[in-house]
Design a protein that fits this description.
- The protein is mainly beta and about 180 residues long.
- About 10% of the residues lie in helices and about 40% in strands.
- The protein has two helices and eight strands.
- Strands 1, 2, 3, 4, 5, 6, 7 and 8 form an eight-stranded antiparallel beta sheet that branches.
- Strand 3 and strand 4 form a beta hairpin.
- The two termini are about 25 Å apart.
């Protein structure tokens, strides 16, 4: 049996094909089988938050352990209108067709996030997934007549553990069945 080449270096140059799927608040299941494209992605960053558990002996710290409690991050992108309405909780419930509003009943669901990351030096691809993500940014609206470029929207989020106790997944396309993993992610 042939072994695959081990990738020693991956230069994360470009994030693309970002998609989200929402979870039903009542059942906790994904709402549909097809993910929605998030639009043109500019950048994504993630950072981990830890809780430090300390053991003291006679008032002096003798050891500690850190436990991952969540990931936080942000995404900059140009969102399609349908995704923006989901992210910000705009709804047309009880309104005339085509009219959307933001109220104190705004419902922003948890989401499954997936994207492809490309190493432009080698054309190697990586699939990434954040299985449980909650957008923490509130409604933002800025219209600038003097701008020469359409501004990206920056969304802050928190990521939580999924049913496998994982916050984040990644896989290099050359190390997995890309047709299966790429389609499922």
């Amino acid at each position: 049996m042939a072994t695959k080449n081990t990738i020693e270096e991956f230069n994360e140059c470009k994030v693309t094909q970002a998609h989200v799927n929402t979870y039903d608040r009542k059942t906790g299941a994904l709402t549909n089988g097809k993910a929605n494209a998030m639009g043109c992605t500019g950048k994504i960053n993630l950072s981990s938050e830890y809780k430090i558990i300390v053991k003291n002996c006679e008032g002096v710290e003798v050891k500690n352990v850190k436990k991952l409690v969540k990931l936080t991050g942000n995404i900059s992108l140009h969102m399609p209108l349908s995704i923006a309405r989901i992210v910000y909780g705009l709804s047309n419930n009880g309104l005339k067709s085509g009219v959307y509003a933001l109220g104190d009943d705004a419902n922003t669901p948890n989401m499954l996030f997936t994207a492809k990351v490309i190493d432009l030096f080698t054309d190697e691809e990586k699939y990434i997934s954040i299985p449980k993500m909650a957008i923490t940014t509130g409604f933002i609206k800025e219209i600038d007549n003097s701008s020469e470029e359409v501004a990206e929207v920056e969304l802050e989020f928190s990521a939580y553990k999924d049913e496998n106790n994982k916050f984040y997944y990644e896989a290099l396309a050359s190390e997995v069945d890309a047709a299966t993993i790429g389609q499922k992610w």
